[in-house]
Amino acid sequence: MAEGTPNFKVTIDNITIEVPAGTSILEAARKIGGDVTPPAMCYYSKLEGSGGKCRTCLVEVSKGSEKDPRPMPKLVASCRTGVMDGMEVKNITSPRVIEARKGVVEMLLINHPLDCPICDQAGECDLQDLSYEHGTEGTRFEFDKRVFEKEDIGDYIQLHMTRCILCYRCVYTADQLTGERQHGVLERGERSEISTYLGKSLHNDFIGNVIDVCPVGALTDKTFRFKQRVWFTKPVDAHRDCENPKCCGKVRLWMRGDEVFRVTARKDQWGEVEGWICNECRFHKKETKDWIIEGPSNVSRYSVISQGHYVNTVPQPKIIDKVIGKEPKLLLNIHDVSEVNRPEIELSEIPGPAHSDDFEKKDDKKLNN
Amino acid sequence: MKLLLEHAHVEGIRYYDAYRKHGGYRSVEKALKMSPDEITEEVKKSGLRGRGGAGFPTGMKWSFLAKPEGVPRHLVCNADESEPGTFKDRYLMEFIPHLLVEGLIVSSYALGSNLTFIYIRGEYAWIVDILEQAIAEAKSNGWLGKNIAGSGFDCEIYVQRGAGAYICGEETALLESLEGKRGNPRIKPPFPAVKGLWGRPTVVNNVETLAAVVPIINMGGEEYAKIGVGRSTGTKLMSACGNINKPGVYEIDMTISVEEFIFSDQYCGGIPKGKRLKACIPGGSSVPILPANLLLKTAKGETRYMNYESLSDGGFQTGSMLGSGGFIVFDEDQCVVRHTMSLAHFYMHESCGQCSPCREGTGWMYRILKNIEYGKGKMSDIELLWDIQGKIEGNTICPLGDAAAWPVAAAIRHFRDEFEWHVLNPEESQTRNYGLAHYADPVYVPAVS
Ligand SMILES: Cc1cc2nc3c(=O)[nH]c(=O)nc-3n(C[C@H](O)[C@H](O)[C@H](O)COP(=O)(O)O)c2cc1C
Ligand code: SF4
Ligand code: SF4
Ligand code: FES
C-alpha cells in the first residue's frame, strides 16, 4: 500500500469498506470475506497476469463510481476489475450473477470427468467445492467428454489434461518462478492443452509449485499419487532452514502417524500458497526428522476436506444476515448426505495412524473407548 | 459513388506510376503540411466509423491515444480479415495496394507512429508480396523512410503474416501475435490506446478504415461527411456472396436500400434461377441472420437501407448489424439449421480457449446443432441451445463469445419452426429442405427503369 494512495469506498452486497485505489473488486471482497467473496478458479494473487479466464468470479457493477454512477452493462470479472470510489457491486445479491455463475460452473464441468472418487485431488479440489456451492445437480451434456492420455512431465509430476480447466496458473507459475519458458498451452479452443516444450520433462528447483497452484487434479505429485486419500492424513505445519534462498521453507506435512506422506506449501483461506517451496523440500524431505514441527494446521478453508474431521477448523464467518436480498445456497454439508465420512470422528484426535477402517461402523467400539 | 475503388480497374494501378498518375499520394503531400492534430480533427469531422466490424468512430479512437513523453507509439493495420463472408480488404489490398500504403502514411503521421505494421491473414500469402512491392515503391519514391518529403517525419511500414487464426483479428490477440506470442486476447482495460504493442500506446484500425483516410484528407472531412446518411458517412465496401447472380465486392454509398443492393443489376443482380429470397446475414458471420421479410423492411414496415443505423433498427429482436460488410444471401433452398451448424463449427474451431464459457460452450452448441441437423435432435435441445448461447453472450473476455452466440440466437429467434421441423421429421429432414415458409420476400418484381 503505497504512501499517498487514496482510499476508495466500495459497497459489495450492501457491505461498505474502504480499500486503496488499485484494488480489484475480488480483493476488496476478500477483505470482507465470507459469502460476498466471489469464487476464483484462475486468479492467483501471487501470479502476475493471472485471472480473467475462468469467469466464475463474475459480478454485477450496479453503480460505476460516485463520479460516473452508470451501471456497467455486462457482468465483469471481479478479479481483473479495479474498484472505483463509490462503486456498488452485487455478487450474491444479483440473480444475474447467480445465473451466470451457474452457467460457468456447468461449462467447466461438461468436459470434466465426474469421477472424483478415483481422482487424487478429491477432497481438496477447488472445482469440487465450486460445484457443490454454485452448481446444479444434473448435467445437460449428452456427448462424449474430451479425454487425453496421462503424461509424465519429469520425475515428480504427472499431468492429466483430461481434468484440466485451463486456468493457466501453472503456465504463469512455470514462467514466473522458474525463469525458463518450457511449459505452456498448445492448440486452441476446446482442443487446447497444457504441455511442455517438445514434450520435455520439467527440471528446475521450483517446478513442484505447479502442483499446488493447480485447482484440480490435473497436476499431481507422483511421490504421493494414490498413496493416501487426503482426508485420511493429518496436516501439520512445519519448517526447516532450506538452503535454497528462494524457498520459504514453511510447509505443510500431510502425515499418517509418524509417516510423512506428502509435503506441500501452506495454503491460506483462499486456497493460495503462502510462500513458494523448492523441489528439495517437497519431494525429498519426507521424514519427520527433516522438519521442525509447529503443530496441527488450521484448515481454514470451508471445503470438503475441512468438514468435521479436524480440530482448529476455522468456520466460515456468517454475514448473511447483513445481506439484504437473495440468500446464497450454502455449502452442502457432506454429513447430511453421506454416512462415509463420519462427523463424530475427529481425525486429528486419533492417536495413531488413521485408516479407512476407522471410518467403518464395525470399528465403533475401538473409537468409543 | 466511388471513393476507394474509383481507379481499382485502371491498367497497372497496382504499381506506383499509374497510381501516382491518378492522383496517388496527394493526401500525403497535403497532410504533411498540416499538423497531426488537424488531421485527427478532419477524421473526426468526416464521421468515419471503423470498418472492421464494431463501427467505432475513428477520429474519437485516435484522440484517445495516450501520448506520454518519450514513449514510441504505433499504428497497426488489421488485415486479418477472417470472418466468414468478408473479403473486402483482400480486394482493396490486392488491386489497389498503394491506397492502403498512402492511408497508412497519413495516419501514421497523424498518430506519431514511426513504426507501423500491417498484420495480414496468413492465407493471403500472395498479397504480402503485393503489399511489400507497394511499400518498396513508396519508399523509393520518398514517401516512406527518413524525413518524408522534407517534413522531418520518419516512417517505416512492415507486413507481418498471421498463422491462420481468426481470433488474431481481435485487436489485442493481434497485438499478442505481433509480439510473437500465442494469440490470446488480452483482458481490457488497459486498452491498446494506452498499452498496446510492447506496452506502448497503439491504434489498431481496419484496412478499409485506413484507406478511407485518403479521400477524407483529399476532400476534407466535412465534404466526406456529406456522403451517406446520418451517422453512416462516406462509402462502404460490401463483399456480397451466397445465392446472388453477381457475387463480388461493391463500394456503396450508404443511402441505397437493401432491396436495391440485392436485386439491382448494378450490385448483386438478384437471385439465380428465379429463386426467392429466404434470409440474409448482412454483415459477416457474427451478426444476426434476418429472414427476408425483416431484411427488406423493418418491423415498423419501413424500407431497410444499407447503413449502420437502418440495419440495426429493431435491435437484435428484429434487426441485425452492418458489421464488417460480409453480405451473405440465402435463397429458398437453403437450410438454416445446416448453416447455423456450420457457423457453430467455425466458432468452436476458432475460439482461443481462454475463457470457459466460450471454450466449452461453442463446442457444446455445435454438437447439439449437429444432432438436430442429422435427425437426432430433441425438442428440448432447442431450449438448451437458447440457454447455452445466453450463458456465453456477454460473459467472455473478447467479443468472439458474443459472435458465437448471436448467430445461434438469431437462427432460433427467427427460424424456430425450421428447427422444430427437423426434430419432428428426422427422416424427411435428411432428404429435403424446409423451404421458404412464411419468411418469404414479397415476390420481387424488378422496377423497369
Ligand atoms: C474475433 C474477432 C475477429 C476480428 N477480426 C477482425 C478482422 O479480421 N479485421 C478487422 O479489421 N477487425 C477485426 N475485428 C475487430 C477488431 O478487434 C477491431 O475492432 C478493429 O480492427 C478496429 O478497427 P476499426 O476501428 O477500424 O474497425 C475482430 C474482432 C473480433 C472479436
Ligand atoms: S493443469 Fe491445472 S494449473 Fe495448469 S491450467 Fe490446467 S487446471 Fe490450471
Ligand atoms: S471469448 Fe473465446 S476467443 Fe475470446 S478470449 Fe474467450 S475463449 Fe478466447
Ligand atoms: S477468477 Fe476471475 S475470471 Fe477466473
Set out the fold topology:
The complex is a heterodimer of chains A (369) and B (449).
Chain A: E1 7-12, E2 15-20, H1 25-32, E3 58-63, E4 76-77, E5 87-90, H2 95-110, H3 126-134, E6 150-152, E7 157-160, H4 169-178, E8 183-186, E9 193-196, H5 209-213, E10 219-221, E11 234-239, E12 250-256, E13 259-265, H6 279-284, E14 292-296, H7 334-337, H8 364-368
Parallel strand pairs in A: 1-5
Antiparallel strand pairs in A: 1-2, 3-4, 3-5, 6-7, 7-10, 8-9, 11-12, 11-14, 12-13
Helix pairs in contact in A: 2-3
Chain B: H1 16-21, H2 26-32, H3 36-46, H4 58-63, E1 73-79, H5 88-95, H6 97-111, E2 113-120, H7 125-140, E3 156-161, H8 171-178, E4 202-206, H9 207-219, H10 221-226, E5 228-229, E6 232-233, E7 235-242, E8 248-253, H11 258-263, E9 277-281, E10 290-291, H12 292-296, H13 308-311, H14 315-318, E11 326-331, H15 336-350, H16 356-373, H17 379-392, H18 400-424, H19 428-431
Parallel strand pairs in B: 1-2, 1-4, 2-3, 7-11
Antiparallel strand pairs in B: 5-6, 7-8, 9-10, 9-11
Helix pairs in contact in B: 2-6, 2-9, 3-6, 5-6, 6-7, 6-9, 15-16, 15-18, 16-17, 16-18, 17-18
The site of flavin mononucleotide (FMN) has 26 residues of chain B, from α4, β4 and α18.
Name its key features.
heterodimer, A: 369 residues, alpha+beta, Ubiquitin-like (UB roll), Alpha-Beta Plaits, 4 domains, five-stranded mixed β-sheet, four-stranded antiparallel β-sheet, 14 strands, globular, disordered C terminus, B: 449 residues, alpha/beta, Rossmann fold, de novo design (two linked rop proteins), 3 domains, four-stranded parallel β-sheet, 11 strands, binds flavin mononucleotide, binds iron/sulfur cluster, binds FE2/S2 (inorganic) cluster
Major sheet of chain B, described briefly? 5 strands, mixed
Helix fraction of chain A by DSSP (H/I, runs of at least 4): 10-25%
Q: Can you tell me the CATH superfamily of the largest domain in chain B?
A: NADH-ubiquinone oxidoreductase 51kDa subunit
In spatial order, strands of the major sheet of chain A run: 2-1-5-3-4
Look at the structure and give the mean pLDDT of chain B. 96
Class based on secondary structure composition and strand pairing of chain B: alpha/beta
- Assign the CATH class of the largest domain in chain A: Alpha Beta
Regions with little confidence, pLDDT below 50 for 5+ residues of chain A: 307-311, 317-335, 362-369
The CATH architecture of the largest domain in chain B comes to 3-Layer(aba) Sandwich
Spatial ordering of strands, largest sheet of chain B: 8-7-11-9-10
How many helices of chain B? The count is 19
The biggest sheet of chain A amounts to: 5 strands, mixed
Helices and strands of chain A, in order, run as EEHEEEHHEEHEEHEEEEHEHH
Q: Any idea what the shape of chain A is?
A: globular
Overall SS class of chain A: alpha+beta
Number of domains of chain B: 3
Unreliable residue stretches of chain B: none
**C-alpha termini separation of chain B:** 19 Å
Number of helical regions of chain A: 8
| CATH third-tier fold name of the largest domain in chain B | Rossmann fold
Oligomeric state of this protein? heterodimer
